[in-house]
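BUG: 3D viewer hangs when loading the predicted structure for this chain

Environment: internal workstation, default settings.
Expected: structure renders.
Actual: progress bar stalls at 90%.

Input used:
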Amino acid sequence: MNAGNYALLGVFLILTAPCVSAVESDYQYDDDGWLIRLAGPERLALGDEFGCHGMPDVNPLEDPNSVPACISYLNERIPASKWGENPLTFGLPDDSNSNVNSAVLSDSLISAGIRVVDDSDFGPNNNTFNSFEVNAGSLEKSIASVDSILSASNEEGIVVLSWIAEMEDLNVRKDGDVVSWIGEQSFWFTTPGEIISSKSHAMISTINSSDSTVIVEQPGPISGLWTTPGNSLITAIDAEGMGLSVHSVTYSNGSELLQLDSMDRHLSEGWRFENGSLHLSLMPGSVATIHYASNQSLESIQVSNNTFNGLIPLIVYGEHVTDLFEWSSGFKDSPIRFTWLIEPRSVAQMDWILPIIAGVVGLITVFYMRRLILSDDPSPELYRTLFESE
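Structure tokens produced before the viewer hung:
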């Protein structure tokens, strides 16, 4: 092969390199650098959750292997929560429950450690997954509705919203008035993984009627979930059937547990007494003593599961999040906490006019180089130097 043909072959290989690499991986995607820079760490520290919405241009019902692929993509870049590393939430395609592959997808989700989906009808056994389905609309301009939020709050005892910042390359505006209104309400701003991880309540260890104290212990973390405070509702009754008021709550070492107010809206350890009942949140393995007001007989005490601080939970799904900065930038000062359902970016489509132009330029360059060399009648040694590599 002469030197000119070597040059042509080199140009061809350069131009076709993208085509060769495109088939070397099962899933093609571009990274969202904001997951590991600025936006990701900031939202993680605030208490947001990171889940998955699948791989780009792939339906997980048709390819269940895309579920662990998305989980792996997320795990390599950011923890799922400040409470735990493993992702717990996955956003499903529409009509997943009625699809012939729903059982296969269910198995893939379970194997990947997923505990929460956004479809209450999914799976042959509804107890397989926890479900938090959107019931109060979205946060987009002209779509968000205070009435829908109040209706969900009153009728279902939980508010679940969605948010998308970009649709077909168009930026979507949030409804600023509704977002501001939400920020002023006494909701528990939370995430699905946080809710299911904090469901266990404290257990009564010792009741001391003589000094009106009760010692409670919070069980250890539930396997497969995160290590979060557990939320309890505790009610103590005296001999006359009246509720006992709480004076203070202390740890086993005597230090006092933080006393909350109704506007403490992000999960933490603490307590608040309201309407005859104690809202108590303790980290797993903690032991606490409840000090009731003195001179009150303690006849009975009841403990049950509770929401944090007795507040109605509010969840917001960021859907198909391909650019975390774009999705989150409008909520820097908001108390709302988001569940970002991450989906890697699709690989940018190549504009084929550019390779064509590059090819033409390359061919013209080779042609004129050969013409110039031949016109100068170079020596064989010079010819080899220009077109051959060692």
